[in-house]
Specification:
- The chain is an all-alpha fold and about 120 residues long.
- It has one domain.
- It contains seven helices and no strands.
- Helix 3 runs antiparallel to helix 4, helix 4 packs across helix 5 and helix 4 packs antiparallel against helix 7.
Length: about 120
């Protein structure tokens, strides 16, 4: 394996920021919802790969983000998120991106590895 160029916590935090940006884009523009959710989901393999470096963080992420993170459920979860009725979609995304939501919890977990929480 090649050495990493980006420190673990910063890499994970950047991925979470990207995913949140894409989900907010999907909320703001119904016409781009499927593509934006697909882009957010596209970050999952990178996230899973880096989480393997820290088993404690990986376990904590799994507790918060289980069906969105690992197969066999992750792909279907993201697909269904992109295609669910608008009202349901808004509620699901709000639970992820609101202050104190899933993304805030994930950021706190990742940030704690470098004292960034």
């Amino acid at each position: 394996m090649r050495p990493r160029r980006t420190e673990f916590a910063n890499f994970v935090l950047d991925l979470l920021d990207f995913m949140e940006e894409k989900l907010r884009e999907a909320l703001a523009d119904e016409n781009s919802r499927i593509a934006a959710v697909g882009e957010a989901a596209g970050a999952m393999p990178l996230l899973r790969d880096r989480l393997r470096e820290d088993e404690v963080v990986q376990t904590q992420f799994t507790l918060v983000f289980d069906n969105e993170l690992y197969e066999p459920h992750a792909s279907e979860r993201w697909r269904s998120l992109a295609r669910m009725p608008r009202t349901d979609f808004e509620g699901e995304v709000e639970a992820l991106v609101k202050p104190g939501g899933a993304f805030a919890a994930l950021r706190a977990i990742a940030g704690a590895t470098q004292g960034l929480d």
